[in-house]
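In the laboratory, one determines a bound structure by crystallizing the protein with its ligand and collecting diffraction data. In a computational setting the workflow is compressed into a single prediction: the sequence and the ligand go in, and a structural description comes out. We illustrate the idea with magnesium ion.
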Amino acid sequence: MSGDTPVLRVSGLQRRFGGLLAVSGVDLALPAGRVLGVIGPNGAGKSTLVNLISGHLKPTAGSVLIGDTDLTGARPWRIAHAGVARTFQIVKPFRGLTVADNVTVAVMFGPARIRSRARARQEAERVLERVGLGGKGGLPPAELTVADARRLELAKALALRPRVLLLDEVLAGLRPAEIDPALRLIDELRGEGLTLLVIEHIVQAIAAVSDEILVLHHGAVLTQGPPDEVLGDERVIEAYLGHRYTRRNPS
Amino acid sequence: MAESSTAAPAADTTRPARGRRPRLPAWWPWGGGALLVLGCLGLQSQLYSGQERTVTTVFMFVALAAAWNLIGGYTGYACFGQVGFFGLGAYTTVILMVHARLSFWIALPAAAVVAAVFAAVIGLPLLRLKGHYFAVATLGVAEGLRELVTNVPRWTGGGSGATIPSTGDRAVTPWLGNDGFYLLFLGLAVVCAVVVALVSRGRTGYALRAVNQDEDAAAAMGVNTTVAKTVAFAVSAALTGAAGAAYAFQQVTIYPQRLFDVDITVLMIVMVVLGGAGTVLGPILGAAGIAIASEYLRQHLPEAHDLTLGALIIIAVILLPQGVVNFARDAVRTRDFSLLSNVRRYRL
Ligand SMILES: Nc1ncnc2c1ncn2[C@@H]1O[C@H](COP(=O)(O)OP(=O)(O)OP(=O)(O)O)[C@@H](O)[C@H]1O
Ligand SMILES: [Mg+2]
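The predicted complex, in C-alpha cell form:
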C-alpha cells in the first residue's frame, strides 16, 4: 500500500430520484491498493453509487475526485479515460461482437488507446487469458455460461488498465468452486496497486478480500470499518440479515 | 478466475453455435469488389439505353443503402428521414448551379458538406432520442425540409420545380449523358461501399457496433458515444447528399414531392434490412436484388407491381429477418442452411 493520498475520493455524494434518496451523503477516500467491500440490502443504493462514480448517473449533490481531478458529473468516457473501470450488475456484452472483440473495444478506446487492430487483439487475448476465458475469444457472448459472461464483464473492465475498479456483484450466480479463483484475482489486483470497490451479497466472500466494509442502508452509510468489526455490529445484522430474513419469509 | 467453467450453456442462445469457418485470403473483399466494378464497366457497352438507365438507378440505390447502413445498420439509429439529406443535396446543387453558376463538380462535394453539417447540427439533439422516437423525429425533419423548399420558390422553384440549365451556352456544366451518369453513379456506389468497408474494419466500426449494442457499456469502455453517433450520422448524410446532387443533375428538373419522397427512405431501409444490416455486402446485395425484382415485375406484371413486390419483401423478411448476408454467415458457421430453422432461431 503506497502512501495515503486517495485515488478515489467521494464527498457528500447524493442522488435523488423524485422523492427517493437512492444515495445520500456518502463519503469515501480510497488509497491505492485498498479494497472496499460494499454491502447492503436490495435497493440500498449500491449500484447507484457505482453509477454516480462511473458517470452513468449525475449526482444531485456532492463530488467525485479521481486523483486530483474533479470529475463530478463528467461523462462516462472521460471517467474511463481518467482510470476508472466498472462492471455492470446486469451484464452488458456487445452481442453482435465476439468475446475477443468485446474486449478489443476496451483496449482500443480505453486510456491506452491502442489504435492498431492487431495489437489491440493481442492485448485482448492476454486479458481473456487472465480472467479464465482463454480460447473462448471466438465465441459470440450469447454462448457463454453465466460465470463466463461475468468473466467477460471483468475482462472488459480490466482491459481499460484502470487505477480504480468498481465491481458490481461479479460473483453473483457463480458456483462455490468458481468463487475462490475470482477472489484470488481480486487479491492479485490489489497487489498490483489497484483501488477496488467491490459490491457483493455473499458476505463471507467479501469479508475475505476486503480491507474495509461499508454498509449502505436506504442510501446512507450505516457503518464502515474492518470486516470482523462491521459484521459483528448489531445494526448491520438487523438491517442486512433482517432484510434477507423478511425477504425469504414474506408475512 | 483461472478455471474455465463447465456449467451448462446460458439459456439465451439466439445465435447459433460456432463451427470452423472456411478460410479466405484477407484481400478477397477488395479483390472481389474490384472484379465487380470491372464487370460493371464491361457491362455498360452491352446495355440498351433503357437498361443502362435502370442499372444506373441500381447504382444509386446501392450508394443510398450503403449510406443508410452506417447510421441505421452499424449504429442502430433507424433514420426514417434519410431522404431529407438526399433532397438537401439535390437542392444545394440546384441553388449552386442555377444561382451561383458554379460547376457541378463543385456543387457535388458542396452538397455532401451541406448535408453533413446539417446532420451534425440536428444530430446533437436528435441522437439523444432512442428507437422509434429518433425514427419519428427524423421523419419530421425531412418533412420540414420539404415544406421549406416548397416555400422559398425564389431559390428552389417551389412546388413547380427547378431546372438546371444543362445544354447550350446557359449550361455551367454540360449534361453528362446516359453513359456519363452510369459512370458517375457507379463511382458514387464504389465510394460509399469503400467508406463503409473502411469504417467497418477500423476503430470507428468497433465504436459504432458497441454503441448499437449498448450505449452505457460502450461509454464505460471509453467510447465517446456522442462523437461516434454524430460522425456516423454526418458521414451517412454526406454520402446521401452526394447521391442527391448527382440525381438532381441527372433529372435536370426536380420537384420537392419527388426529392423528399418518403418512399426513397423506405426503399433504402428495406434494402439494408433484407441484404443484412451492419455488413458491407448486405446493402449492395439488397439494393441490387430489390431494384432488379422491381424492374422485372414492372415489365412482366405491371398492374400488380407494388402488391407483388410488397408481398415478396414481406416473405423475405419473415424467412430472413437478419438479412441475406447475416443468414449466410450463420448458416456457414452452423452448417444449417434451412430457412425454417432460421425462422425458429429468430423466434418470429
Ligand atoms: N434510474 C432510476 N430511476 C428511479 N429510481 C431508481 C433508478 N435507479 C435506481 N433507483 C432506485 O434507487 C434505489 C437504489 O437502487 P440500486 O439499484 O442502487 O440498489 P442496489 O443496492 O444496487 O440493489 P440490488 O442489491 O438489488 O442491486 C432503489 O430503490 C431503486 O428502485
Ligand atoms: Mg445493484
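Chain A touches chain B through 56 residues (CB under 8 Å). Keep in mind that any predicted model is a hypothesis to be tested, not a measurement.
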